[in-house]
Amino acid sequence: MRRLLSIAVTVGVAAGALATGPLMNADAAVAGDPIASTNGLFVDPASPSARWVAANPAHPDAASIRSKISTAPMARWFTGTSDAQIGPAVAAYTGTAVDAGDRLPVLVAYNLPGRDACGGESSGGAANASAYQAWISTFAAAIGDRPAIVVIEPDSLGDFECMSAAQIAERNSLLTFAGRMFAEKAPNSWAYLDAANPKWVSPTIMAQRLQAAGIAKVRGFAVNVSNYVDTAWATQYAGQIRDRLGTTTPYVIDTSRNGNGHNGEWCNPAGRRLGARSLGNPAALQLWIKNPGNSDGTCGIAPNTPAGTFDPAIAVRLIAGT
Question: Which residues have a catalytic role annotated?
Answer without folding.
Answer: 155
